[in-house]
Design goal:
38 residues, mainly alpha, 2 helices, Ribosomal_bTHX/bTHXc/bTHXm, Ribosomal_bTHX, ribonucleoprotein, ribosomal protein
Length: 38
C-alpha cells in the first residue's frame, strides 16, 4: 500500500483522482453558509 494503490489517499494524490478516501471537495459547514447569506 502506497503511491501505486488507488484505494489509499496517497495513491489518489499520485494518480490525481478522487473518491471515498480523497473527496473532491470538502463540504462547508451549515453555519458558514448561513453567515454569507445574511
Amino acid at each position: 500500500m502506497g503511491r501505486g494503490d488507488k484505494k489509499t489517499k496517497k495513491g489518489k494524490i499520485f494518480k490525481g483522482s478522487f473518491g471515498k478516501s480523497r473527496p473532491a471537495r470538502r463540504a462547508k459547514k451549515a453555519t458558514d453558509a448561513a453567515k454569507k447569506e445574511a
